[in-house]
Amino acid sequence: MQFPTTVKVVEVGPRDGLQNEPDPVPTPTKIEFIDRLSRTGLRCIEPTSFVSPRWIPQLADAADVIDGMQRPTGVVYPVLVPNKRGMERALEAGVDTIAIFVAATETFNQRNINASLAVSMTRLGEVAELARQHDVSMRGYVSCVLGCPYEGAVEAQSVATIARELHDMGCYEISLGDTIGVGTPVAARELIETTAAQVPLQRLAVHFHDTRGQALANVLACLGCGIDTVDASVAGLGGCPYADGASGNLATEDLVYMLHGMGIETGIDLDALIAAGRYICAAMGRSPGSRLGLIPRHRRAPRFST
Amino acid sequence: MQFPTTVKVVEVGPRDGLQNEPDPVPTPTKIEFIDRLSRTGLRCIEPTSFVSPRWIPQLADAADVIDGMQRPTGVVYPVLVPNKRGMERALEAGVDTIAIFVAATETFNQRNINASLAVSMTRLGEVAELARQHDVSMRGYVSCVLGCPYEGAVEAQSVATIARELHDMGCYEISLGDTIGVGTPVAARELIETTAAQVPLQRLAVHFHDTRGQALANVLACLGCGIDTVDASVAGLGGCPYADGASGNLATEDLVYMLHGMGIETGIDLDALIAAGRYICAAMGRSPGSRLGLIPRHRRAPRFST
Q1: Which residues of A are identified as catalytic?
Q2: Which of A1, A245, A291 sits opposite B212 (nearest CB)?
Q3: Statement: the pTM of the whole predicted model exceeds 0.90
Q4: Which of B6, B38, B58, B62 has the most crowded Cβ, counting Cβ within 10 A?
Q5: Among residues A209, A272, A267, A274, which one has the least CA distance to residue A242?
Q6: Domain boundaries, chain A
Q7: Which CATH class for the A8-299 domain?
Q8: How far is A56 from chain B (nearest CA, A)?
Q9: Does the active-site annotation cover B240?
Q10: Over the stretch B200-254, which tens digit does the pLDDT of each residue have?
């Protein structure tokens, strides 16, 4: 089985991770966290989201975060925007890359963003038009790609169709998300193969939640299909898997450990990544959700194995 | 990539899991735990160990456990024995299957059981002779197969040699253990390929610790090599990964979820397995170490995905 020689890791912790915290993290802490991540060698970090503060008050400081954080060259910072209003706020904040999202199923999309798939696609088209006008790059997400809490099984073909629409809309990359963490390796592989028939493989990313402990195994299966872009959240930020079936992100540290162990380059300093995860967890008063982050420093992976 | 259609799961929780508990679990609780596991469809359960009570007081009740637990036909119960004295106690208890163990490196073997590899092999030969005389089946373990905390990298060839010696000694199955959980999928695959040149693939099992979150991905890589026997510990019993680099077992529930999701038969009732894990964790006053066990019942995996 062949694997890519290099993998781009997309860090979603600051947004996907912190948006679920019951107590909002102070803006300066978010900025310090993002700046630390920017120094790990990560090439893509999702810093925040311009969703309505009424929906997610934890991210109401999006503009201040964008304004305060460092933006070294070579690192891309896509911010999540749900609609035209969010896009306008993102543009005011001087954002140059955004991420748009839609679910693979009608019911989840309805419950998640209170709109039908058709309405969502129309709204995203308006966002895409603004993005084109202002020369803003777009990343796309499809959620519930391997299962929906309301509709159950999801057809890979319907995921592929939506991914293609996002690609045609101008997304430079489409991230396929197993939002409730029900997927297993064979299904993940079939999803990639089906979707790659509609969207160039190089344009696809995977986003697995570890709700049932399957995330890293699913990543491995997708790497074997040629996928070379993987989303993850440092310290597994994203809420606890038992509190919400939709949360429990793959921990970036454990992903990077596997990739490096397999001889796959990421450009990431694993020690610095672990330290960034410890920083934000200490600030939030919780222990890291990554396995690596839980190992005392002197017990961290021996050099030979990374 | 091809996977086996059926996998035998070897449950090591009652022994490998409980031997690390600071407070010994009461014998009746152990027996009830093993009896519940015996009703899940598991075909092989490691109930206890006849090591010196001075070494591991938590398992001093080994004979009482063997005497008290049910032993339905079709389920094999290997008990761990380190030497001739342990074997004699196991025989007195009426055991028909044992497991012997040795490390892949001199230093770990010395620190783990206070003997050189040569001395260990001699002692295990004595145990094997007693096993032959009493028609007792033998399973073998090689530990530190992907890394040693004292010697670092481990040559796959040396693991293969030791595995072959255990096979020649009469072990019906040799379990390769990544005792400190440093392995990653490519190294795991290479280990299997190298060892399978010395021991028939059908005689090999894998035993991964999840210390760095790699266990299930490593299992997937080994399944791809044709491995069809996998060790795991219900509820991830075996201590916390951050307290001891050598602990943090792969949770049987998460393994079985993956196997079933891949269409691989195990004969195991996952719900009953999760319940058995919750039983022992409740008795020990801790929360399950499996991801699945942490998901509230109503959020457990939708039927379609198993």
Answers
A1: 240
A2: A291
A3: yes
A4: B62
A5: A209
A6: 8-299
A7: alpha beta
A8: 24
A9: yes
A10: 999 999 999 998 999 999 999 999 999 999 999 999 888 443 334 334 889 999 9
